[in-house]
Amino acid sequence: MGKGQIKLQEKTAIVLGATGLTGGNLLQMLLTDERYIKIRLFSRNSIGFTHPKLEEHIVDLLDLETYKTNFLADEVFCCIGTTKAKTPDTEMYKRIDFGIPVSAAKISRINGIETFLVISAMGANSKSGVNYNRIKGEMEEAVLKCGIPNTYILQPSLIGGKREEQRMGEWLAKQFMKILNFVLVGPLEKFRSIDPEVIAGAMVWLANNSYDQVKIQSDEIKKIYHSHFNTSVTN
């Protein structure tokens, strides 16, 4: 390394949920980020392409404990999530939205991983009467109990973007939110829909910088992204 050159970090990241909308955006960012030399994916299905940085583990995500010897990294990005329409069985729904992130956090703690980022949802509350919000709230509490030093819980509002699978109810909600976004101002701004690349970019920034909040809602996610990626706020 020549005089005056800054040695790049050589980090390894684990991504859970790389085949999803936000996880896919996150993966592309990490692959082009020179601070990362290896990206370990733990997925149920292959992402369908190769890259020198990629290390794919096709696994049963509901049994992550089995793969803990390979669950080694500097940072874990958990982008796991399902919907009632996609997973109508309430027990399976909880095994995914609660079980996978919490299992990942526990393994991270055991393996000495000091940075853990997970996508939750706005309205997450373990005391909520709404099943979706309650499970997200319970997940947040369980993740925090693991005591990972740098834990960040992102609480986005409705996530925009085009999914491969068609969900009519979600599509209609997104169209409605596009209109509603114009009147959601001031304290209501946090309820505006949010793009997946904004969440992904904020996650990457948080993994590499200190931040004084653990739970970060949509408006703060957008501020982080637009402050550090030189873009204008469009939603």
UniProtKB/TrEMBL annotation:
Q: Does the keyword Transcription apply?
A: no
Q: Which domain of life is it from?
A: Bacteria
Q: What UniProt keywords apply to this chain's record, in alphabetical order?
A: Membrane, Transmembrane, Transmembrane helix
What InterPro entries does the annotation carry?
NAD(P)-bd_dom_sf (IPR036291)
Give a yes or no for keyword Membrane in this entry: yes
Q: Which residues cross the membrane?
A: 12-31
> PANTHER family from the xrefs?
OXIDOREDUCTASE HTATIP2 (PTHR14097:SF7)
Name assigned to this protein: Semialdehyde dehydrogenase family protein
Q: Please give the organism.
A: Arenibacter echinorum
